[in-house]
Amino acid sequence: MIDRMMRTAEVRAVRALCNSSHWLDVKRGLWTRPVKIGLRASAWPESEVVALLDARVAGCSAQEIRDLVRRLEAARGERAPRVGVQRVATVAAGAPA
Fold first, then answer.
1. pLDDT tens-digit profile of 9-56?
2. What are the sequence ranges of the domains in the chain?
3. Which residues of 29-62 are buried (b: 16+ CB within 10 A; e: fewer)?
4. Helix (H, G, I), strand (E, B), or coil: what is residue 41?
5. Would you place residue 2 in the very low, low, confident or very high pLDDT band (cuts 50, 70, 90)?
6. Checking DSSP bridges between strand 35-38 and strand 5-7, what pairing results, if any?
7. Cβ pair 40, 31 in contact under 8 A
8. If we measure between CA atoms, which residue out of 81, 91, 88, 11 comes closest to residue 44?
9. In DSSP terms, which residues pair with 45 in a beta bridge?
10. Strand residues in 1-97 grouped as ranges (E)
11. What architecture (CATH level 2) is domain 5-92?
């Protein structure tokens, strides 16, 4: 399943926070870091935004939210498609992909 990406302005609007408060939460580990989607563009997977908002509504402590942030960011690597070195070398050598 492809997760919709939410840009900073949209995430801030959903959270009802000003820019500095949003980025302070990111710095403190209370919100996930954004994913680079271009040279000058970042966004958050919608599933992460929903999970973090749900945790706040449920009354989770700051430590519980930090733990959730770590789990969400770790899961990004598990969801990402892997481009192996062997595949890159094979394509570079002119073999069919």
1. 999 999 999 999 999 999 999 999 999 999 999 999 999 999 999 999
2. 5-92
3. bbbbebbeeeeeeebbbeebbebbeebeeeeeee
4. strand
5. confident
6. unpaired
7. no
8. 11
9. 5
10. 5-7, 35-38, 41-45
11. Orthogonal Bundle (1.10)
Residue 75 CA to residue 1 CA, distance in Å, equals 14
One-letter amino acid of 21:
S
* Lowest-pLDDT range of 1-10, 28-37, 67-76: 1-10
SS3 content of the chain, % helix, strand, coil (to 5): 60, 10, 30
Q: Which amino acid is at 92?
A: A
Q: Which DSSP state fits 45?
A: E
With 0-12 / 13-18 / 19 or more C-beta atoms within 10 angstroms meaning exposed / middle / buried, residue 7 is middle
